[in-house]
Amino acid sequence: MRYDKALYAPQEEFLSERVDLLKPKDGQKVSLFHMRPSDTGVVCGEGYSAVLTLPVGATRLYVLDDGIYAYEQAQKALYNVISRSMISGIASEPRALLPHATEDGTKGMYCVEGGAVRYLRSGTVQGASTVGGDCAAMHHGRLFVASGTRLRFSAPFSTAGLLQAERDPDGAGYIDFEDGKGSILALVPFRGKLYLLFERGIMRMRAEGEALDFGAAEMPFRGGKILRGSVADVGNRICYMTQDGLFSYDGSCDYHDTPEEVDLSLPVSAYACNGKYAAAVTLRSGKKALYLYDFARKERRYLLAEGLLAGDGEYFLAGAGVYRLTERGLPLGEDCSAEIALCSPPRALAWVRVEGEGQFELRIGGIVYPCEGGEKVNVGGREKQSMTQIGITAKSADFRIRALGIAWRKKDGD
Length: 414
Fold this sequence. Notes:
Oligomer: single chain
CATH architecture of one domain: 7 Propeller
Number of helices: 0
Helix content: under 10%
Distance between the termini: 42 Å
CATH superfamily of one domain: YVTN repeat-like/Quinoprotein amine dehydrogenase
Structural class: mainly beta
Shape: elongated
Number of strands: 38
Strand order of the largest sheet: 2-32-37-34-35
CATH topology of one domain: Methylamine Dehydrogenase, Chain H
CATH class of one domain: Mainly Beta
């Protein structure tokens, strides 16, 4: 009797995982770099439109209701981006520019520096004090300026006797706070009161009417030491960052997010941007970025830019150029990308498919795989290193990603 021998190859079995970039499952983590969520998937982040090139490089922008100002250290001047006019005599980079109106409606602006406060009107310096500060705010017609644990204030609706070193009978003066909470980092008018954010605490101040009627009370606080520059009033909450992450105060203190990709040992500069918390930061990779946190969606993303410099106007500096954010566009000199951490234990990847449209590059274990949306990318044989991290880069601004489909090779015990 004759028998025919046949080779039998058992069919390979796979485990699957799907990563929805809009709604990752518990254990999955999606970090977006110049990508943003939309109703139908993740798309390209905001682009940039050039507003103008400054005659001399500026160090900071300020967006006010009446215009955009840039500080130019070389000329010690404020440059009005809209009218192209210059205000000279500003010795150092302003900590704040604050609009001011007297009781008769005369409009001007306070320029708060570290060593002086100047009153600007009609394009010139109209008056100055010999005392400056680290942060400032306008509240009930008074200018409040803090330095260390001392809070100085002007007389209401007046620029006379601007922030005298000592108290005066016109209503200007100062308050010294105990140093147990560290220095005052920010002053925020909020819900009719003035809030003082110290390095390790929050106080609410009643500061309307006569100075003798001022009072302060300690508020709930959590999160450790507040990072200088990280405080921003985002609509219905005061936000700040510590080494432990992003927190907010709205009567109580809440934790929101820990941006692991950010080097929090480097300077942070925060703003409110269309109802979101925005902070100019440096990533651990060394790249400059804007960290954006959306409270409604409870998600973070990063916009690759030198930094958003002020408010909902969304203006920023890059070298000597002033730019404004647009709806969509590739970052300057960078790509749109996402980093995805998988919740499955390490196994050998079989293939990956991008659910979406566009041209992409997948980065897996140091190897780059070009692909198109919908294409199944075979990663390799069993000898390939087990992976729990996948990177994806978009090669143009016209892309959309909904999810990644992933297949793992089964191993013994699965």
